[in-house]
Design a protein that fits this description.
328 residues, alpha/beta, Arc Repressor Mutant, subunit A, D-Maltodextrin-Binding Protein, domain 2, 3 domains, five-stranded mixed beta sheet, 22% strand
Length: 328
């Protein structure tokens, strides 16, 4: 392919990437200020030049063909490179600038990330932040997000990222509740207690524990389930039962003695614990505004000792459930 022809097709390639991103000719036309027919013709010209069909069109949606997947990956690289060129001037500015859009789970955003935003804005006066708090899976490209913070032990292989902090969960109750109902000595003792749990899925009332090579799973019950960590903490503080809480939510109440950790010698395992990673699309030329945000949060969270859960006791309390048959 001649250089002139390749240059002429670059615009069509960029349009093709946008069509895949939006999944619609009409939406692409709206965003680019063109007509749907013009967008369709642009993709058709690219298909003709490449000699392959890129999109499978149905009455309801567009799908990439087998060859379209490969072409889209290459075109996406081209668009990313073009964006890097446009942003390269910012690399020589004395300070980062522009908008940073960050998606983060609600509780982590509220209790872990948000408290550091004022200091970040003060340090980088030319950077604005849009913090999007939601618990749904966010696609960085489709949802037009620069960075996504996710709790995972296996970051998506198609993304780059940096580990920020461990997210640990634990069981807590007030001293008043425990004085009235007793302190559990083993996970199975929870069957005799009222528990406050997430309640979004049936498995949320099935609590799992780990200590050494012992694994225990217990079905708990209670009169109150709520899918907000702040609300669960408030319920625990009102003596409604033993609640499951991420440590970053419970830490201040623990430090003040308002609540105490239950079964501290056991590791409480949930689907919502793991490592918090800040992820972004692979890009050799990461804009300074994103580098600044990533480095700032990594520095702040790594230097905040109160995010580390208290060490578990090595000596468990006496319990009638210590037989290996029960503790598997």
């Amino acid at each position: 392919m001649s250089t002139n022809k390749m240059i002429a097709l670059m615009g069509e390639m960029a349009v093709f990437v946008k069509v895949v991103e939006t999944g619609s000719f009409s939406e692409t036309a709206r965003q680019l200020g063109a007509t749907p027919s013009a967008i369709s013709r642009s993709v058709a010209r690219l298909e003709k030049a490449l000699g392959t069909r890129l999109l499978q069109r149905t009455t309801r949606k567009l799908r990439l063909s087998e060859g379209g997947h490969e072409v889209h990956a290459r075109c996406l690289d081209m668009v990313s490179a073009a964006q890097a060129v446009l942003e390269v001037s910012g690399q020589f500015s004395p300070e980062p600038q522009g908008l940073v859009r960050v998606s983060v789970p609600k509780a982590v955003g509220r209790f872990v990330i948000h408290p550091h935003i004022p200091d970040f804005l003060a340090r980088y006066p030319k950077v604005d932040v849009q913090l999007q708090l939601n618990d749904r899976y966010v696609d960085l490209i489709d949802d037009e997000v620069d960075l996504a913070i996710r709790i995972t032990d296996r970051p998506s292989p198609g993304l780059m990222g940096r580990r920020l902090v461990d997210i640990d969960h634990m069981l807590c109750a007030t001293p008043e509740y425990l004085a009235n109902r007793g302190m559990p000595a083993h996970p199975h003792d929870l069957k005799a207690h009222t528990c406050v749990f997430l309640g979004e899925e049936p498995g949320d009332s099935r609590w799992k524990f780990l200590r050494g090579d012992k694994r225990v799973s217990v079905s708990v019950h209670g009169r109150y389930a709520v899918n907000h960590t702040g609300a669960r903490l408030d319920a625990v503080l009102h003596h409604l039962g033993i609640g499951s809480l991420p440590y970053f939510t419970a830490r201040h109440a623990l430090q003040q003695g308002q609540i105490v950790q239950v079964l501290p010698e056991w590791e409480f395992k949930t689907n919502y614990c793991g490592e918090a990673w800040i992820l972004y699309p692979p890009n050799r030329h990461l804009p300074p505004k994103l580098s600044a945000f990533i480095n700032f949060m990594a520095e702040r969270l790594s230097g905040e000792p109160t995010l580390s859960r208290p060490a578990r006791r090595t000596e468990p309390a006496a319990s009638p459930y210590e037989s290996p048959e029960v503790a598997k």
